[in-house]
Predict the structure.
Amino acid sequence: MADDLASLLHHVPHYNFKFQAVPSTFDVKDRDYQESLAQIALPVAVLAVFLLLVRFCLACRSTKNDIFSRYRPSEAVCNRFTVYILLLLVIGCAVLCIFGTVQMTHAVNDFTDRTTNTVSLLDSLTASLQDLSDFANTKAVEVSNLTVAAPDESAKKHLSDDLENLSMDVYSAYEKISGALRIDKWNGDIQHYDHIRNIVGIALASLLGAFCVFMVLGLLCRSHGTTACFSVLVVGAFLACWLVGPVLFTASVAVGDFCVDPDTPVSKTIDDPDAAYYIKCTGEFPYQQDFDAANQLLIDAKSSATQLDKYANFTGLLSTIQSDLDSLHARLVCDGGLHQQYEGAVDAVCDDGLKSIFKSAVGLLVAGLCFAITMFLTPKIVESFSEDANYYRRPMVNEVYNERSMLLSAPKGYGTPV
């Protein structure tokens, strides 16, 4: 579902301000791509301004010709029934927005957990590498200080040098990997802004829902004041939905572009050649040369360790180092855990994250459309509530003057002049 949604949003046309086609490749630093995202939200903003101008023009026309309007009971009932349906639909959209906001919070928490786990695993591996390097270096010093017979001096020096070089090779791998995949550096800012977004999103959706419930009750009670207030506030609700909704839809398009090929923008952002191995899980293991050198040193040191076993269990020492080295190698390769954590972080963005943004965008856009229709219907409803229960019709202008003329010109006893 998430892959299909990302692919669908990725195929949304991208045009810059010169109306030239722009590739849908995610690149927030590219000016044309930024303009293409702005162009996606621009038509909705233009349509919103157009609808407001039409509403203003109709309001002015209705004010000028109000005395000529006629009250039609069937039309008033139809208007109220339509508004009932639209307001119930807006309440459903508000619930959808709340659900999307909560789902977004879950996605952010999942993302930060994954990135934190990635860095924690990386720190554990680097700590193990450093411990192994220190251990080999300590043993090299112990061997160099070992008192042996003259025939074993050469073997002692050879073993000490091998352990010291092994320590240097392991430390070289430690230095290289310690700066890779630091993808948790934005976690603090992400969680901070998500907390604000969560409060604002739920508050906005709840306010829209409560606003609609308030209006439905006003319509049911035929409250003229409530409906008149709503006819004014609905304009603000319409603007709020169609200002935030397009922004969220544009964000969902950008996330869709990212999710089609997430590895490339992440690699550019981290800008670490070694990290590309864990991101794309292709190519040669970047620290293989250091591990090969360490393994070769262990092989070369075996003969010297065997010769010095009469002083201490150096063969067992090399076996321990070899076991630790193999374990670290298995944990450092692509399928050792780092790539899985990275994939989990990407899935959090491209699954729950993308779905939540899209749901909120659709909810707000549909709610804005409902408010736009309601915006044109509420003046008629307010007018219908101003009429008598017997469907009183206000007189036409010519009827007012004709009646006045007839009364003034009538003989005595036929009426009292007004």
